[in-house]
Amino acid sequence: MVSENGQVQFPEGFVWGAATASYQIEGAVAEGGRRPSIWDTFAHTPGKVFGGDTGDVADDHYHRYDQDVALLADLGATHYRFSLAWPRLQPDGRGPLNPAGADFYERLVDALLAKGVQPWVTLYHWDLPQALEDAGGWPAREVASRFAEYAGLAYERLRDRVVHWTTLNEPWCAAYLGYADGTHAPGRTEPVAAVRAAHHLLLGHGLALQAMRAHGARGADGTQRSFGITLNLYPVDPLTERDDDRDAARRIDGLFNRQFLGPVLRGRYPADLLDDLALVTEAEHVHDGDEQTIAEPVDFLGINYYSRMVVRAGGGQRHQPGTASVWVASNDVEFVSRDLPRTEMGWEVDAQGLYDVLSRVQREYGPLPLYVTENGAAYADEVAADGTVADPLRVAYLDSHFRTAHRAIADGIDLRGYFVWTLIDNFEWAWGFSKRFGLVYVDYPTQRRIPKQSARWFSEVTRRNGLLSPG
Ligand code: FCB
Question: Is the pLDDT of residue 401 over 60?
């Protein structure tokens, strides 16, 4: 796969895309019958989001989607990963589809298809209808059934035009940032609720797959639909081979990675994780048959990769009641920083970690088709006097990660595609608009889109289906 001129060539048919999420780009939060999600409520709560930013307008993508689809076509993207806003489609989280919401996504999908870009839908990227949070949120089992109902309705409406369906984006974040440390919506700090939320998200995933497949797994043209989930996976390494450091790594890996990989791909929670969690809660919320439902087969696994964790044992108690830690029942662990370049998020740049994640999943849970559904970097981009945006650090970041992905494929890993996070600068959750991840710069006051240097570079990659040799 490395040709004579040194070009790194990806397999034919490799998926190249960019990703976004509804609340981060759409704006128009009160239009077309949309009602509030937990992120609307959270962002409007003082002190929750940096600078008091909200997604009220965001990138105004709801009105400018045509322009954004044209940007994707200019990038040469084969696919576009975006999420449906549940509160646009089912404003109160139950009942029939809201026609105006469904029309919007139909228009978007048609615009993509007209430009030859395949839609890749995520059903849940964190914007739970507020009405369902008011009824208990993800810690309430009922929400899993509501999610399946919504998935079935959305699928029924769009399945003729959309091949790839992802249930959840990063359930770890939705559960633990949302309900344990409260840095994401809905901002609750209840460890037991977080553990339950994680389970009900996974249960919702399994039920949603069943609901979609019940409508038939083929489109009108007879082609097969493809179903999966996106998990954020990081390697978790112990700082030393000491038993206590290794045990710290085991616990964090259990909470972050295996809690989700286990039930989805093996049909059971890891026993050691359940033992750890027993410090705060027994697993009585896991009913007979749930793990089987969660293990409903997936056609692919989406992986979001950003960095690696290195941990050591902390000196304290494993569980300190009253602390709002994401590391439920393991908050005595120390995270060790390494002498590596960092992005604007403070995340260490570690391309090899992507290889380690992909090979681990294939070895321990595969083989199954894998896609990198997010990878990218925030940098402090600025518009120069000549109107251009130079982002050489982002180009270098993506180049090193793409090369790593290529090496993984050459070593036999079944990686089929790669989505850059993100198409356009957008609302970066608790960081508001202060962090820019886009291939395309957004000047928020005017909503002008300016493709960055990385956008031009990426369009070369998609055109060649590969990379030129460095130097
Ligand atoms: C991921 C999210 C995505 C974006 C990136 C930077 O955790 O899925 O929405 O915020 O991080």
Answer: yes
From the CA of 231, how far away is ligand 1's center (Å)?
Answer: 11
CB atoms within 10 A of CB 166: 26
Distances (CA, A) of 347 to 40, 239, 285, 337, 418: 27, 18, 34, 10, 20
- Return the bridge partners of 37, or none: 129
Mean pLDDT of 415-432: 99
What is the per-residue pLDDT for 320? 84
Distance 453 CA to ligand 1 centre (A): 22
Q: 79 C-alpha to center of ligand 1: Å? A: 18
For the beta carbon of residue 406, count every other beta carbon within 10 angstroms.
21
How does pLDDT run across 196-230, given as a tens digit for each residue?
999 999 999 999 999 999 999 998 889 999 999 99
CA distance 257 to 93: 29
Residues with catalytic roles? 170, 374
Ligand 1 atom, smallest distance to 345 CA: 6
In the chain, the largest separation of any two C-alpha atoms, in whole Å, equals 63
pLDDT value, residue 424: 99
Ligand 1 binding residues, C-beta < 6 A:
21, 24, 169-170, 173, 232, 304, 374, 421, 428-429, 437
- Check pLDDT > 60 for residue 8: yes
pLDDT of residue 470: 64
Nearest-atom number in ligand 1 for the CA of 437 is 6
Atom of ligand 1 at shortest distance to CA of 378?
6
Tell me the domain boundaries of the chain. Answer: 8-235+249-306+341-467
pLDDT value of position 296:
98
d(CA 190, CA 215): 37
- Which numbered atom of ligand 1 lies nearest the CA of 232? 7
Separation of alpha carbons 379 and 394, rounded Å: 7
CATH number for the segment(s) 8-235+249-306+341-467:
3.20.20.80
- Which residue lies with its CA nearest to atom 5 of ligand 1? 421
**What integer pLDDT is reported at residue 319 of this predicted model?**
86
Ligand 1 centroid to Cα of residue 171, in Å, is 12
Distance CA 174, CA 191 (A): 13
- The pTM for the full model equals 0.98
Mutate to test the pocket of ligand 1, among 123, 374, 433, 437 (most ligand atoms within 8 A of CB): 374
- The answer, yes or no, to whether residue 87 has pLDDT greater than 70, is yes
51 or 321, which is more confident: 51
Q: How far apart are CA 133 and CA 197, in angstroms?
A: 11
- Residue 288 in this model has a pLDDT that exceeds 80: yes
